[in-house]
Amino acid sequence: MSELIYRLLTKNFNQIDPGSIDDYVTRGGYLSLKKALKMKDMEIIDEIKASGLKGRGGAAFPTGLKMEAVKMAEGSPKYIICNADEGEPGNFKDRYLMENDPHQVIEGMVICAIATGIRFGYIFIRGEYVKSQKIMETALEQARGKGFLGENILNTGFNFDIDIYTGAGSYVCGEEFALLVTIEGKSGRATYKPPFPTTMGLYDKPTQINNVETFCTIPHIIELGGTGFGKIGTASSKGTKLVCLSGNVKRPGLYEVPFGTTVRQVIYDLGGGVPNNRTIKMVQLGGASGPILPDEMLDVAIDFDEMRKNDLTFGSGAIIVMDERIDVLDILKRIVQFFHHESCGKCTPCREGLTQLLILIDRFIEGTASMQDLSLMNILMDTMTNSSICGLGQAAPTAVRKALEYFPEEFTSRISNHVAAAM
Amino acid sequence: MNMVNLTINNRAVSVPEGTSILHAAKETGITIPNLCYHPDQEVKANCRVCVVEVEGAKTLQAACATSVKEGMVVRTNTKKVRDSRKVVIELLLANHDMNCPSCSKNNHCGLQEIAANLGVRESRFQNVLEEQEIDTSSPSIVRNQNKCIKCGRCIQMCNQVQGLAILDYIGRSDSAQVKPAFGWYLADVACVACGQCSVVCPVAAITEKEDIEQVWEAINNPNKTVVVQTAPAVRVSLGEEFGMEPGEIVTGKLVASLRTLGFDKIFDTDFTADLTIIEEGHELLQRIQEGGTLPMLTSCSPGWINFIEQYYPELLAHVSSCKSPQQMFGALAKGYYAQKIGVDPQDIFSVSIMPCTAKKFEADRDEMSVDGENPDVDVVLTTRELAKMLRQAGVDFNKLEEEEYDAPFGLSTGAAVIFGATGGVMEAALRTVYEVVTGKTLESLDFKAVRGLEGIKEAEVDLDGTIVKVAVAHSLSNARKVMELIKSGKAEYAFIEIMCCPGGCIGGGGQPFGGTDELRLKRIEATYRADTELPIRKSHENPAIKKLYEEFLGEPLGEISHHLLHTHYHSRKH
């Protein structure tokens, strides 16, 4: 079990008092910041590019390229935003990172600011994460006190400060544009892209927006060097991944593993498998917006390329295990209800589509569905995925679509006999 | 300009950098259906009807929101595209009041047109419409949430052009709705009834309040003498309703069509527009000579009056006391014409055909009644409603022979015609004020500085050595700027014309649907053409006006004028 765990971002967990900046510094904290202050800005970006780091929020965009784009983009002032609006069901890694090692987040953001020459940043923390907000507030205050943040950082003349912004608990505000307009004081609705935030972000200015875990990785890249960091993980996926394991497992929780670890290893070797030796019915990857897999698919590795080859996504890192007692359609209904509740209502496919998807799923649950309902459901989900304005509507049908692929009998067996016989 | 080369449906096309796929496709003869897109508005990209396939993109792209790129390969008619568009339309229909034949926008509906073009014969989805009360609280506008497709065009119009933000999204997911704040009635919020929202609504979620039946009743009532007046802007837009090119002048056909419908007397609001110039011009001179409140603000646009009463009541002293031409006409119809033809004023039924929804509100005001009981204008119909009446009666508008207005309120001048366009009231006033003050004849009647679609325009006139500065503003976001300027004490103008709607009355909230700047410019061009085609182009030279003063009114700003042609405004601040 131990060789599966790779403690990089979680190395301070349970080792330091998150309320103490001294604890962080004692264990090597802010050394990377000091190192970065002596580097040229492009050297920092080059190291991050060399590391192969890809964003941990779900889209897996190369972080170094994003930073370079922001740096090159015209417009001022520019902003750095840490997306800590962790609303994806089954995910809790960002909360753990903020609550167990808040200075790691800050250090990562300051290093990025040095590289991009940005003067101001926000941490956008999910409304429900009250404890995270408090811990981050304290950490920011301490970092300013020690000269790691604010005016004239470590007497280098470099200024960068961070404010905390909290959402009101809307899931869609984790979507970057909805998040940005919320900071501007508007209601949290998605918008079309391009342009992307790198050129037209907060207040239409170039903006680097990354996930908490991505920022937390930055100090380790500076410490190890891009190539050194790149030795962890696989060819397509560098470094470690925080995995949020939940559901019917013996030891649910947060695990840090090197990329390349399989889903089955996480569930059985780290999570201890399913209680009472029950079998796995299905596993959902990433969170509510992720695919649903049967047991026989669990040897897939946590690796961007391998996931893509299998038409899967790992999202921001949840593994939700559901054992043999769980009803597929019941779970799907809950998932669709979640998206139906959280849709911002701006675009037609998502706003109206989720209502209709719920109706169709109910027909299967009630046993009144027809073959036409099955094909209508497919074409509806295609439309939502192809034509919704943002990731919410595009990903909302993923679980249902994958369930149809891997558990087709769950649907066909519930098609009303009368109609099925007629087919 | 950098050109970008791409292919659309395997056809090469070269368009300027920054062009959207929607416009590039148009170049190749492909119309991509769309609902939320509006050429004068910011891209919203929320209806998702205009999606196309772009090679290399994972998802379909909204053609309205996607700029062309060099080498881009676009397909607008693949199975994926067709399926997606159809589903989107079916989804909208499944949450829509589908009583199309009885809908006021039947055959004028963007959703209906696209559904028909895409071959949507039914919605395969369950209808989930939860019927809501229709908001009929405003005398001008009806809001029917059951038809709304949440495209947001009305929101942008109200918010950005008029600067009011009466409408916005409320709620999220399938509870998202377009409503006034807190879901209040239109009558209970500071809506100015301009109806611009209705002009850009692609469906029938916002329409004018239909008053056609009352007019039919009056026409069919043998005891009523039904007189009708037609606003300047109607003659340059009504043709559009019957397939004519925007910018056709249809004055003669308009008169003939009204006579065909059974109106007893066909008069022209242009007549009282000339009268307005005489009264307002003298009021301006009086204010200048006697140190009255300046700048003086025009008062013909009821949407604008609703705005200043609700948003800037502290500036009401600046507003001319003149009634609008519609209401001057109404007052004369019942306070003068009735007596002249020997009919009890109560048996006169006075109808006006207006480009405007706010005129309905204006006619409804308590002040607008010469006997204190009955309204001077009984019913206001918009240009769109007149077109509906004509269709109801089966009138083939295109085939009508041109006819003349009736006497005595049928004779008018070019100065009155241009009341319909932004800057027109100012220009008409200057033509008269210049000649009255200086005693000289104007060499050029055209004050071109006050014409056109620029939001705020300025001009200077030399009145025999006295330089008078004037300004013109249209749409309420510009009106607001002028109000702030006056409040700051920096407005060095003597006279300011304000029209509520973009482009002036030709862009009014009761005009044929569409409401683009392109359309407005064509109507404006027609307006000035109509002006030059008339034999008399100055209000004070209108012989019928002269006669009215001789026979009845006496003098401008006199006792009778004061009673019939002037009014007062009051604060209605929320």
Plain-language structure description:
The complex is a heterodimer of chains A (about 425) and B (about 575). With about 425 residues, chain A is of the alpha/beta class. Chain A has helices spanning about 20-25, 30-40, 40-50, 65-70, 95-100, 100-115, 130-145, 175-185, 210-225, 225-230, 265-270, 305-310, 330-340, 350-365, 370-385, 390-395, 400-405, 410, 415-420; strands at about 80-85, 120-125, 150-155, 160-165, 205-210, 240-245, 255-260, 280-285, 290-295, 320-325. Chain A has 19 helices and 10 strands. Chain A has a 5-stranded mixed sheet with strand order 3-4-2-1-5, sandwiched between helices. In chain A, strands 7-6-10-8-9 form a 5-stranded mixed sheet. In chain A, a hairpin with a 4-residue loop joins strand 3 (about 150-155) and strand 4. In chain A, helix 3 (about 40-50) runs antiparallel to helix 4 and helix 5 (about 95-100) packs across helix 7. The model of chain A has no long low-confidence stretch (mean pLDDT about 95). Chain B has about 575 residues and is an alpha/beta fold. Chain B has helices at about 20-25, 80-95, 110-115, 155-160, 195-200, 210-220, 250-260, 270-290, 300-310, 325-340, 360-365, 385-390, 415, 425-440, 475-485, 515-535, 545-555, 560-565, and strands at about 5-10, 10-15, 50-55, 60, 75, 140-145, 165-170, 175-180, 205-210, 225-230, 265-270, 295, 350-355, 380, 455-465, 465-475, 495-500. Chain B has a 5-stranded mixed sheet with strand order 2-1-5-3-4, with helices on both faces. In chain B, strand 3 (about 50-55) and strand 4 form a beta hairpin. In chain B, helix 8 packs across helix 10 and helix 8 packs across helix 14. The longest helix of chain B is centred in the middle third of the chain and has 22 residues, at about 270-290. The relative contact order of chain B is 0.12. The interface between A and B is medium-sized, with 35 and 35 residues.
